[in-house]
Amino acid sequence: MAANGEMVNEPHKTFDTILVLDFGSQYSHLITRRLRELNVYSEMLPCTQKIADLPWKPKGVILSGSPFSVYEENAPHVDPDVFNLDVPILGICYGLQELAWHHGKNVLASEKKEYGHALLNIHRHPGKDAHVDRLFEGVEDQIQVWMSHGDKLSKLPPDFEVIATTSNAPFAGIAHTKKPYFGVQFHAEVTHTPRGKKILENFAVGICHAKQEWTMERFVDKEIERIRAIVGEKGQVIGAVSGGVDSTVAAKLMKEAIGDRFHAVLVDNGVMRLNEAQQVQETLSKGLGINLTVVDASERFLSLLKGVTDPEKKRKIIGNTFIEVFQEKAKEIAAAAAGSPNEGPIEFLLQ
User: Which of 12, 83, 120, 298 suits a disulfide with 145, CB 3.0-4.6 Å?
Assistant: First the structure.
């Protein structure tokens, strides 16, 4: 919401958007990356996202991989309402198994775990079932793919067809005969699957009909516009930075949008790499012109951690102390700005 109370135009309101529901795979972020390489905008949300709370409708949904097994007691499962969205769905690895679990379960531990390259044989269905072949349209009949799974389908779910197999996976690719639901056991999002990008394009563009209008330039312009609308002409924003890609990009966007009304804070907790704090300050302050404050809290952190061996206690000490230091610095920044053009409370937190 903007400072004047009006709703801000979110990116998913500007661009056709594919929703990626993340089940915790190490590859999940690559799905959004590959889609954006295709100029298709995507947003990744936790797999537990309640569809009723989603204020927008995606053009399609991708269910990611996961380190879990769908049949485990505490395994994550998608909100069943995702199947009431009336949009195409693609399940990848665990996502395929989640798709099958919703349509009759029939997932079990594989006798042979599969990790690495595999040859995928694509099955065509000429005639009345030809629509199930759309995921592999324009793809060769045999391709190399990347597998990383320990579970498999025990049998084909009702109303599904087999669209791909490997020597170890008889259900390496499945498609619903009546609805635009597809599942692949392999990871189409990794570069180890050379034709994976084409498969994702077939889903997002060919099946979901998402327009390829997203570009980084358009996204940056829209985000700067959105930040200014949210923060307003006098709003102050504070945000923690680490020097990593994510926080640096976010800080640069804030700098471009509102200048020195964005206050970046780097907390040195005493366990950073040698000279890392100085290097981050050099990059952000001098290189990018970001309004950065470096807080040397190393002695405070290390004194609190002295003699503590339990990992969980360490985690809590570091987390709580970081919040305390950050809040203290926010008050100091606000106080120091008194009487200046940047005077005012810090109302926004960059996350």
Answer: 120
